[in-house]
Specification:
The protein is mostly helical and about 170 residues long. The chain is built from seven helices and two strands, in the order H-H-H-E-H-H-H-E-H. The protein has helices at about 1-10, 20-25, 25-45, 65-70, 75-95, 100-125, 145-170; strands at about 50-60, 140-145. Helix 1 packs parallel to helix 6 (about 100-125). It starts with a helix and ends with a helix. Residues about 10-20 have low confidence and may be disordered.
Length: about 170
């Protein structure tokens, strides 16, 4: 599924240059990814006996003020989302090491593939400042419930990522 997601992204990238134009210009795609995030969250919530994480997951705080968001450059938004995704992917990897139950492990694996695909995609779109360099420190919170990881991912896709694609579409889809 992760490879399929990445392939889908790449099929929507214009050939010859790394432009997210086709991806962001088709708003049905982000709606599809929001739906997938909701489905993963729902399926994870249906898993029986998910353990409490003995080593809490450190998750990005992905809430934001729309007014502040609008005042940022697209590159700043991209960097912020990359930081959030990097922290989220790390949390998923650490949680995978603690969840042995099949249902939870399967859902975490799928979440890892989706979040990592977005991370790789956004790394390829250097808008102004060139390629992304890891080393940021987003606002974060510790979470001991596996379902909180899925909630954070859904909120990130539904919020910052959706608005970022919307903002890019204003420039790229004229």
């Amino acid at each position: 599924p992760g490879l399929l997601l990445l392939t889908s992204f790449l099929l929507h990238v214009e050939e010859g240059r790394a432009s997210p134009a086709r991806l962001v210009c088709d708003s049905r795609l982000i709606q599809k990814y929001i739906g997938e995030a909701k489905d993963m969250e729902k399926r994870a919530g249906q898993c029986q006996a998910l353990p409490t994480l003995s080593c809490p997951a450190v998750l990005p705080l992905v809430d934001f003020s729309l007014q502040q968001w609008k005042s940022k450059s697209n590159e700043t938004k991209r960097q912020e989302i990359l930081c959030d995704l990097a922290l989220l992917v790390g949390a998923v990897v650490r949680a995978q090491g603690q969840v042995t139950q099949e249902c939870g492990a399967t859902q975490l694996s799928q979440l890892h593939q989706h979040a990592n695909s977005f991370l790789l995609l956004l790394q390829t779109f250097g808008l102004e400042a060139g390629p992304w360099e890891p080393g940021c420190s987003p606002r974060s919170v510790e979470q001991t419930h596996v379902t909180g990881i899925f909630l954070t991912y859904r909120q990130l896709v539904q919020g910052k990522l959706r608005f970022f694609f919307h903002d890019l579409a204003k420039d790229l889809c004229k």
